[in-house]
Amino acid sequence: MSTTAQAISSADAHSAHNYHPLPVVIAHAEGAWMTDVEGRRYLDMLAGYSALNFGHGNRRLLDAARAQLERVTLTSRAFHHDRFAEFCTNLAALCGKEMVLPMNTGAEAVETAVKTARKWGYEVKGVPDGHAKIVVAADNFHGRTTTIVSFSTDHDARDHFGPYTPGFEIVPYGDLTALAAAVTSNTVAVLLEPIQGEAGVLVPPAGYLQGVRELTRERNVLFMADEIQSGLGRTGRTFACEHEGVVPDVYILGKALGGGVVPVSAVVADRDVLGVFRPGEHGSTFGGNPLACAVALEVIAMLRGGEYQQRATELGDHLHRELNLLVGGGAVTAVRGRGLWAGVDIDPALGTGREISEKLMELGVLVKDTHGSTIRIAPPLVISKEDLDWGLDQLRSVLGG
Ligand SMILES: *Cc1c(COP(=O)(O)O)cnc(C)c1O
Fold this sequence. Notes:
This protein has 401 residues and is an alpha/beta fold. It folds into two domains: 3-57 and 307-399, Aspartate Aminotransferase, domain 1; 71-304, 3-Layer(aba) Sandwich (Aspartate Aminotransferase, domain 2), CATH 3.40.640. Helices cover 38% and strands 17% of the residues. The protein has 14 helices and 15 strands. The strands form three sheets. It has a seven-stranded mixed β-sheet, with helices on both faces. β7, α9 and β8 form a beta-alpha-beta unit. α4 (84-95) packs parallel to α11 (290-305). The longest helix has 20 residues, at 106-125. Residues 49, 105-107, 110, 141-143, 193, 197, 226, 228-229, 254-255 line the site of pyridoxal-5'-phosphate. Pyridoxal-5'-phosphate binds at residues 49, 105-107, 110, 141-143, 193, 197, 226, 228-229, 254-255.
């Protein structure tokens, strides 16, 4: 048996089968490239679902992590540590907000936002206790906890995990009329992805986010943007909401905030929102730990310069120009996205997303299917133009007419 087959079969024997990974076993990675246990090289065009926006083994991030590893890695929030204030101050400034509540994973940040909205609803808005409603969109992806899957419309994510947490209202994504109709006096928040990643990189109709902003402001409802996948440079802006000039009340961040080194997530909002928490009401042992803060501080500094956003814009324009040339010619029926982020729909008659992903893997390109007939393309923002073009050549040879 090959080293690859051996590694896969022993993983299959002793890990829960909650994922269906491509049959490749990575041993090393740098920049936009990964190397498997047999020395084959692959161009990473998924970037850990945007957790690796700054590439594998980014020197600045590794140096920041290494320096912090030698000093102190964990204190718990029982004590202050000397990277915490700077992290909160700088992240709040990056978001144009006043306060930060750090957690670890994306799902925890979404849970934190849900708790924030409910508490704000009862203590600030005056919703009767126990009656808070949060409006969410169909086909959302916000994580895997029991509360979050309670408002998923994906059967795989949701079925047989009930009883479900009540208090959520689901409306079609991109439909302002349905959203307006769902908001009542007990609605405390609208929770949305500004671009739906897992659903296939769905960009809402122009004006939708602005409409959500106006509606939520008029009705005294929090607009909570889950920018875990869309944020931090991916779309060519620090936040995908910026494409419509929209500032939500609450940013939910994760993935790239930890630089692909450590899990770091956060909820960021003004004092009138995050100020609802008092000691003991929420927390996390690892949330805001010194190592996480040190890495995230470097991520924030890198985003402040704007060069990653610029790269995502320029390389993204190129990516979309080239992908759009494939539409209708071969296996590609539609392309969506923004910046260095694309969902490519495959004609189901010509192969599943999985089959296409496996063919691309054989050619040295790693992407992943989502929802059957879509592949998601999201290379690290540090990818070179030449490497992107090489990746596009491979895509063309598999998908072209
Ligand atoms: C990945 C993701 C999450 C969940 O993050 P985890 O770190 O996997 O818990 C939530 N929302 C969006 C939009 C995501 O892409």
